[in-house]
Design brief:
There is one protein chain. With 225 residues, the protein is mainly alpha-helical. Helix content is 60%, strand content 8%. The strands form 2 sheets. The chain has a 3-stranded antiparallel beta sheet with strand order 3-5-4. Strands 1-2 form a two-stranded antiparallel sheet. A hairpin with a 2-residue loop joins strand 4 and strand 5.
């Protein structure tokens, strides 16, 4: 579900799911309890269709989903449709990593950071998914910045630079991300690069917002120690 290559099903080998199948599985995965009633699915996935046509379309799709897979992915019990417990997703794994009580001070931090750098459902273009995408982007942006701070405080400035560069590319006017990037370069022993980054950010703020940075370079150098 995460990344730029569409929704894939990875079993013995990975293959890209057809658009309607991908949307149905993603819709159920993002629902509370991974379960939905048939009318809710129809209203969300095919709002332009009436109840009767929507039900027929959903029934055909449910049959095709399970026929195409080597195992039952979707379980229909009367009006209720749910994902099989054997099916997991990279989005679920990323969400669970963020819910870890020690996040981001975990031994698996480097591995956990990989999915957080990926967008959600880039090839699903439906109104129902937009709020999920916005929520995921907000959550992963702040999680990445928190992880960058942890990497820096743990003596891993090079990795902190990589995270900070992604953040400032994503949100060019976000001051905490720029501050993280500048501090990380200071820790790497590159004060000249820190000065360049600070001046670039200062010029951008002046041009686009007419303000000065909330931090100054001297304080950043002091923080870097």
């Amino acid at each position: 579900m995460l990344g730029h290559d569409g929704v894939h099903l990875a079993d013995d080998e990975s293959y890209r799911l057809p658009p309607q199948t991908a949307e149905l599985l993603a819709y159920l995965e993002l629902r509370e309890g991974r379960t939905a009633r048939r009318p809710a699915i129809i209203r969300s996935l095919w709002p332009e269709e009436g109840e009767r046509l929507g039900r027929r379309r959903l029934s055909r799709l449910l049959w095709r989903v399970n026929q195409a897979a080597s195992r039952e992915l979707v379980i229909a019990e009367g009006e209720t449709v749910r994902l099989s417990e054997v099916l997991t997703s990279d989005w679920q794994q990323a969400r669970d990593a963020l819910a870890h009580p020690d996040w981001p001070h975990t031994a698996s931090l480097t591995t956990d950071l990989e999915p957080l750098q990926l967008p959600l459902l880039v090839d699903v273009h439906s109104p129902w998914v937009e709020e999920h995408q916005r929520t995921w982007d907000q959550r992963r942006f702040h999680a990445l910045r928190e992880a960058g701070e942890t990497l820096l405080s743990n003596g891993r400035p090079r990795e902190a630079v990589e995270i900070a560069e992604l953040l400032v590319m994503w949100e060019p006017l976000d001051e905490p991300s720029h501050l993280l990037l500048i501090r990380a370069h200071m820790k790497l022993g590159a004060p000249g690069r820190s000065t360049e980054l600070y001046q670039e950010f200062r010029r951008r703020l002046r041009k686009e917002l007419g303000v000065e940075p909330a931090f100054d370079l001297a304080r950043v150098a002091a923080l870097a120690g």
